[in-house]
Amino acid sequence: MGDLSCKVVVIGLGSPIMCDDAVGLKVSEAIEALGLPDVDTLQEAVGGLDIIPMVSGYRFAIIVDAIQTKDHEPGTVLIFDPESFDRTIADVPAHDVNLATAIRIGRQMDNGMMPEIIKFVAIEVEDLQTVSETMTPKVAAAVGPATNAVLHLLAEFRGPAESRRMS
Fold it and tell me: Whole-model pTM?
């Protein structure tokens, strides 16, 4: 383990048996296979408040998940900040909490343990309904570009950390 000041977690969310919902898991597995120093990876089938302990204690977090807006072609890779979801934050029962609301709650509870920067890499998907261990072709083809998006964010995280350490 290296310097905790640049410790990163990449969390792939989804279900391995619900067609395109597995895409976040596949991207996290691809990052894990690279064996990058100071990068932990998780593959989880959770949402809501369960995300708080997973990101707690890390300096940076990248959450990779399927998204279905129908605004983009399936396989499109999108990068968001938590603030992108501010309009979706609402007072709802805990089991209905979306990720943006969970992050806000985590920051209110113990901001010092929450990551300094959280990014979402979302892949527009076609099919979240079919029980299948195979993703649709366009979404399966997006695993590589989405993995590259995560690597790009990791490089961005490391850039400022490296320059701060030098000064």
Answer: 0.85
